[in-house]
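pls design
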C-alpha cells in the first residue's frame, strides 16, 4: 500500500520528470514527503514565489521540449502561478501544473483557499482535471504528459485534494506515456520540393517549442541543400544558429526591418512549426491573413491550428522535427543563393549596431558579450525593450538556448536563468533584462544561491518602464505618469543575497566587470546604468518625444 503522494511522485518519475519547481504548501505535504524518498533523482526546487516557479517550469519546457513541472498550493498559490500558464499557453510550451487542493469533504462551502480549477483555469490550459481517487493517479499523470506534448503543445493542470494524497492505495504503476508525433506524407514533402523549384524568393520560417536534436540537424541540412534564407519567429532565437550564413534574422515585434520586409516580398513561405501568431506576423501585416499574398506552406503538429486563420496553399499536419528530417531528403535541382545573399546583406548591415548614446554604450556591451560568452550559453530574457538587446544583437548558437515569454510577460527571465542551470548545469546561463523586469522576480536570485548555481544577471537600468514610457512619450509628450522607477543599487542587493555584484556606470567598466562576474564561481549581477534617455536599441526618450 502506498499513499497517493507516493503514487503521484513515482508516476512523475516514470514519465521522465527530473525537476519540480514549486513553493511548498500544507495541501501537498504527502507529495513533498514522497519526493524526499527519491533524493536527487527527482529534485524539488524551492522557489520564492509561485509566479517564479511557473515561469521556471515554462522555461524548462522551452529549453528541453519536455513538460516543465510546477507544484503549488491551493488558492493564492494557483492564482500567482497562472502567469506561467498563460506564458506556456501562448508559447505552445509543454508544462504541467500540480495543485494541492482542499480536502474532498469540504467542497462547495467556500472554505479556506477553495477554488474550482476547471472553471478558473479553463482558458489558460489545454486540459484541467481534479483527481478524486488515488488509484487513478497513474492514469491522470500519463494523460497529463500526453496532452502537454501532443498536437500543439501547452500546459495542463491537475488538482490534487489533500486527503486524496494522504489516502492509501495498492494501484500498480503504469508505463510512461508515449508521444505519438505525426509524420508528413511523402506526397506533401514532394509538393514542398516542387514549390521550392518554382520559387524565386522563398523563406523558411521556424517556430514552435518542441524540437529534437535530430530535427534541428535536419533543418540545417535542408537549408544548406537549397541555400535557403531562414528566419525564426518571435522570441524563437534558439531554433537556428545565428552565425550560420543562411540566417537572416527574426520576424515580428522587437525585430529589425530587413527580415520583415523580405518576408513581405517572399513568393513562398514555409512555416515549419510556427502557428504564425500575432507577434511573429506583426499583427498579420508581414504575412497577410487569412490569405497571404505569397504561396504558404504551413507545417504544424496541431490539426486545430491548420486553417484556424491562415488559408495555406499546402497545410501539413506533422511534427516539425519529423517534417525537417523528411525535407532534408529532398534533392534540389536549383539553389536560392541569390535570394539568400540579398536577404543576408540586409540583416548583417543592420545588426552592425552603431554606438549608442548614454553613459554606457550598449553596442560595446553586446560586442563584448558576443566575443566572451561561449557557444553553449543559454540566454534568457523578460519583456520590454531591454530584451531587444540580446534578441537582436546577441549571436545565439546553442540549440534551444533561448527562453523568453512569447506572451510578453515581465519577470520570466530571472527564474528562466535558474531553470537553465538545471537543464545544462555546466553551461553558462545569462539573463539580460530591464530594471522593471528584474524587479518582478529578482528574489529568485536567492534560489540560485541556495542551489549553488551560477547564472549571470545583467540588468539594463534606465530608471523606468522603458517600453511603456516610449509609447507614452509618443502619444502624450512630456506627460509622464506611472512609468518612472526609483531603483536600488542592484550590485549591493546582489551582495546582500550572497551573490557577486558589479555596477557599471561607464562603457569602459563593463568588460572588466564581466570578467570578474564570470570568474566569481557563483551567481552574479551586473548593474548597467544606461540612464533614462535610453529606451532600447537605436531608441531614445528624446526621439520618442519628437
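designed seq:
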Amino acid at each position: 500500500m502506498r499513499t497517493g503522494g507516493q503514487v503521484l511522485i513515482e508516476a512523475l518519475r516514470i514519465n521522465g520528470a527530473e525537476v519540480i519547481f514549486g513553493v511548498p504548501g500544507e495541501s501537498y505535504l504527502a507529495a513533498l514527503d514522497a519526493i524526499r524518498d527519491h533524493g536527487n533523482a527527482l529534485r524539488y526546487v524551492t522557489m520564492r514565489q509561485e509566479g517564479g516557479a511557473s515561469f521556471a517550469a515554462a522555461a524548462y519546457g522551452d529549453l528541453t521540449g519536455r513538460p516543465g513541472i510546477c507544484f503549488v498550493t491551493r488558492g493564492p498559490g494557483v492564482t500567482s502561478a497562472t502567469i506561467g500558464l498563460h506564458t506556456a499557453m501562448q508559447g505552445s510550451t509543454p508544462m504541467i501544473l500540480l495543485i494541492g487542493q482542499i480536502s474532498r469533504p469540504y467542497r462547495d462551502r467556500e472554505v479556506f483557499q477553495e477554488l474550482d480549477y476547471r472553471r478558473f483555469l479553463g482558458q489558460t490550459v489545454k486540459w484541467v482535471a481534479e483527481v478524486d481517487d488515488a488509484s487513478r493517479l497513474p492514469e491522470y499523470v500519463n494523460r497529463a504528459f500526453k496532452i502537454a506534448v501532443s498536437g500543439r503543445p501547452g500546459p495542463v493542470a491537475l488538482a490534487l485534494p489533500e486527503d486524496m494524497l494522504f489516502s492509501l492505495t495498492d494501484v500498480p504503476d503504469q508505463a510512461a506515456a508515449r508521444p505519438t508525433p505525426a509524420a508528413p506524407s511523402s506526397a506533401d514533402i514532394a509538393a514542398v520540393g516542387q514549390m521550392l523549384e518554382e520559387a524565386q524568393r522563398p523563406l523558411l520560417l521556424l517556430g514552435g517549442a518542441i524540437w529534437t536534436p535530430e530535427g534541428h540537424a535536419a533543418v540545417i541540412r535542408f537549408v544548406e541543400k537549397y541555400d535557403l534564407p531562414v528566419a525564426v519567429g518571435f522570441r524563437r532565437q534558439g531554433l537556428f544558429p545565428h552565425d550560420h550564413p543562411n540566417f537572416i534574422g527574426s520576424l515580428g515585434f522587437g525585430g529589425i526591418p530587413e527580415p520583415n520586409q523580405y518576408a513581405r516580398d517572399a513568393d513562398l513561405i514555409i512555416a515549419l512549426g510556427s502557428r504564425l501568431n500575432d507577434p511573429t506576423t506583426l499583427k498579420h501585416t508581414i504575412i497577410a491573413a487569412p490569405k497571404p499574398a505569397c504561396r504558404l506552406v504551413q507545417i504544424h503538429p496541431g490539426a486545430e491550428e491548420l486553417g484556424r486563420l491562415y488559408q495555406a496553399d499546402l497545410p501539413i499536419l506533422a511534427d516539425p522535427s519529423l517534417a525537417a528530417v523528411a525535407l532534408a531528403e529532398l534533392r534540389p535541382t536549383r539553389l536560392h543563393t541569390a535570394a539568400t545573399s540579398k536577404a543576408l546583406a540586409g540583416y548583417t548591415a543592420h545588426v552592425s549596431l552603431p554606438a549608442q548614446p548614454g553613459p554606457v554604450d550598449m553596442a560595446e556591451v553586446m560586442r563584448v558579450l558576443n566575443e566572451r560568452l561561449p557557444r553553449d550559453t543559454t540566454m534568457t530574457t523578460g519583456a520590454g525593450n531591454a530584451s531587444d538587446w540580446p534578441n537582436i544583437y546577441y549571436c545565439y548558437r546553442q540549440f534551444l538556448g533561448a527562453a523568453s515569454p512569447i506572451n510578453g510577460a515581465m519577470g520570466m527571465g530571472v527564474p528562466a536563468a535558474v531553470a537553465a542551470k538545471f537543464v545544462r548545469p555546466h553551461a553558462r546561463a545569462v539573463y539580460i533584462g530591464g530594471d522593471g523586469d528584474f524587479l518582478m522576480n529578482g528574489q529568485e536570485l536567492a534560489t540560485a544561491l541556495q542551489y549553488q548555481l551560477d547564472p549571470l544577471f545583467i540588468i539594463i537600468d534606465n530608471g523606468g518602464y522603458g517600453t511603456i514610457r516610449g509609447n507614452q512619450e509618443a502619444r502624450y509628450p512630456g506627460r509622464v505618469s506611472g512609468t518612472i522607477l526609483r531603483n536600488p543599487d542592484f550590485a549591493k542587493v546582489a551582495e546582500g543575497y550572497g551573490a557577486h555584484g558589479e555596477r557599471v556606470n561607464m562603457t569602459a567598466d563593463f568588460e572588466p566587470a564581466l570578467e570578474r562576474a564570470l570568474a566569481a564561481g557563483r551567481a552574479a549581477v551586473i548593474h548597467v546604468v544606461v540612464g533614462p534617455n535610453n529606451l532600447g536599441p537605436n531608441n531614445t526618450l528624446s526621439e520618442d518625444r519628437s
